[in-house]
């Protein structure tokens, strides 16, 4: 029989849709509740990710912070490397770097439609890795920085995940079907990377509704086979896109099949959610909690921390998957 494992490491992931001072308050609460990592998305038209990360670093004592994710298009890769290095110079040992291809929410308002997103991501990763390890890229050199910055890559497609597994220190997995997580984790670990798994906790009817409206981003940027799997046809996807880009997430959720929750969220009672996490804990190294709703962040964070504490006390690998 499996023994009860150590405490499950966890962190929070904010979209900067709230004022920076509010993000700081929530990051401090997360740290008090036991979170180890705080990630902030780079959404282009929202609050600036590096301003937010600087404020969070200054206000907390232990949290590791990082952009999750920034992309190769809205910021030049050399400028991105300099920004991350500046954070790591401020507080050595408490900064990660996170890269991905970017999604509809950040690229569409900027009028960007990249033709070769994977190639751009791979090039940006190489540039950032070289600069953050003291090497030159053409005329660019961060001669003032001599620290260490672990690098993470986020992506839903198999090509990005294979690249991330072989090149990055961490792979950030989000919108991964629970049933597919163990196989994906095995492949990633074979490549040498660690896994930060981000999944919504839908432990009551209110949280199911809140999670579904934020699945609009995942549904639109997911590969076509995933959209087909949940019954999201082109007409429905177009309606979701219009509502999402207009900021009407409740309307977007009306067009999404609830089967998304059953496939991708950890759902059920709090006890069932804890059991599901315990059953999958061999498939991740860090559990990342998405935090998107301004009104209920504190309550949701506290409830989720309690679920993760229960999951930590359950025998690893023996929890029952729910959904």
Order of helices and strands: EHEHEHEHHEHEHEEHHHHHEHEH
The share of residues in extended strands comes to 5-15%
Radius of gyration: 19 Å
Biggest sheet architecture: 8 strands, parallel
Shape: globular
The unreliable regions are: 318-323
Question: How many runs of DSSP E, i.e. beta strands?
Answer: 10
Q: Kindly state the percentage of residues in helix.
A: 40-55%
Strand order of the largest sheet: 3-2-1-10-7-6-5-4
Describe the structure concisely for a colleague.
By secondary structure, the chain is of the alpha/beta class. It is 48% helix and 12% strand.
How does this structure look, described?
- This protein has 14 helices and 10 strands.
- By secondary structure, the chain is α/β, with parallel strands linked by helices.
- It has an 8-stranded parallel beta sheet with strand order 3-2-1-10-7-6-5-4.
- The longest helix has 17 residues, at 205-221.
- The radius of gyration is 19 Å and the shape is globular.
- Mean pLDDT is 88; it is low at 318-323.
Q: What distinguishing features does this structure have?
A:
323 residues; alpha/beta; 8-stranded parallel β-sheet; two-stranded parallel sheet; 10 strands; 48% helix; disordered C terminus
